[in-house]
Design brief:
Blueprint: H1 8-15, H2 26-42, E1 46-53, E2 60-69, H3 78-86, E3 99-105, H4 112-120, E4 154-160, E5 166-172
Parallel strand pairs: 3-4
Antiparallel strand pairs: 1-2, 2-3, 4-5
Helix pairs in contact: 1-2
Amino acid sequence: MDNPLPSALTSFIEASKPTDPSSSTLHQHALAAQVLHNLQYQHDWTSLQIHTESPTDHQPLPKPLVSGLPPHRIYIHPDEQIEMLKHSIQEKDILVEREWVLPTHLREKWSLRKFADVFDGITEVPLAGEMDNGGKPGDSTGLDQAKSRRGGKRLLLATVGDDSTVVYYVIHDGIVKPRQN
């Protein structure tokens, strides 16, 4: 009897293994590949890539991170919300921003120190690879902006459960002004 073919996710993870497994463990890289796959095929993100080195000093990151362009803005700073309301700007009309994503497993234990280590190794806006605009010529997706944005550094914490469910939380480096209701 023939063995069943591997799933699309298993094939994707296998194909994206790092060439130098010493840079990060295979488990951490497989987790990052699983989150990348989820973002791409379940949430329609584009220009995704896995980062194993800090863009600031090229030292290894504590864990591999994913960056990419979501289909719509993930977070709108409260000051931007006020400006949008004043000028009747719709959320669909604002530019998307490239986001950092930290792949984690539900059973991992995290501390403020571990989060601080991750934030120390990243820039406010991820530096895009070869496809800064999602591969669309002339498409301005907000990546030409300075490498800073309102609210400082942030990332999406991607928590993967044992059943492969992925849940995303917005995490900020420091205190952020609360939203106005």
